Amino acid sequence: MATLRQLEYLVTVVDTGSFTRAAELLHVSQPALSHQVRALERDAGGRLLERLPRAVRLTPMGRAMLPHARAALAEADRARSAARRAAGLDGGELQLAVVYSVTLGVLPPVLRAWRQRHPEVRVRLLEFPHTEALTAAMAAGRADLAIGPVPGAWDGPVQELGTEEFLLVLAADDPAAAPGADRAALADFADRDWVHYAPGNGLAELLDRVCAAAGFRPRAAVRTEQTAAAPLLAAAGLGPALVPADLLPPGFDGRVLRPEPPVRRALAAYCRPGPDPLTSAFLAVLGRHVRVGIPAPGDEAGGAGVGTR
Fold it and tell me: Which SS3 state, helix, strand or coil, does residue 260 take?
């Protein structure tokens, strides 16, 4: 029978990519670590890891076991936290899974309010570039609550938070931005090189999708993995960028326009059925303090469908 310790050893070896680094992190000897992994493989009925000269690679059996190992460890952590809270030993830990843009654009005021009410509770953030990765992490039990685009299918509670609006960002002196204009058609930028997002980032797919609806495919002047870098690169003159409105920093010096047609997506918080009291309390604070970009008067109708990625 696999033990939690053996599952922890497997996950740590995979995450570090090395038996040596995993042993150092776990404060055990490398022979002891290897022995426990082999015992886990015997119990599973086959090899879980392929030991390469300079790396470690999961076998098909290992790939099948890994999400269940992560889920078992996460569930054990939650069980310990619940027991310690009941005993009055500490405030426990809340694990939040979010997409990159939510960390900067949505969470700060919510976490500030949460901290004021529950200073003893630790918050751990798990950030993901794509909604599919976010939902998969939740399904695997890696977090208590997810915040991101509304999931396509979810069998637990889903609390909609509002509609996120996207803005077109240009350099302040970009000649395409007419003086006094506050809107621009995406099709007007069909021949421009764009500040794009890295493959695997959900916003890369969003930009490709809305531009395709406008009749063109955006060429990339640069691709960034950091969502918050896109408006800064656009303001520096590398090309237009499409960014969540909540992501723009105070005092931003680039030119900001509303795209035509409007680009929006709904955000939500979701968790597994029967959330624990800590998760339910955070959902209540989230509902009171979340601020998602709200369209200006006259923009309520229409909007480009951007999906849930």
Answer: strand
In the three-class reduction of DSSP (H, G, I as helix; E, B as strand; rest coil), residue 230 is classed as helix
Reported residue count of the chain is 309
Token code pair at residue 77: 């952590």
Q: How far apart are CA 109 and CA 102, in angstroms?
A: 12
Q: Which residues contact 275 (CB under 8 A, 6 or more apart)?
A: 144, 145, 156, 157, 283
114's tokens: 């949460």
Assess whether the previous peptide bond of 119 is cis (omega < 30° from 0): no
Q: Residue 196's CB: how many other CB atoms inside 10 A?
A: 24
Strands 93-99, 241-244: pairing is unpaired
Q: Which DSSP letter does residue 186 get?
A: G
pTM reported for the whole predicted model? 0.66
Q: Are 181 and 256 in contact (CB under 8 A)?
A: no
160-211: pLDDT as tens digits: 998 999 999 999 999 887 677 789 999 999 999 999 999 989 999 999 999 9
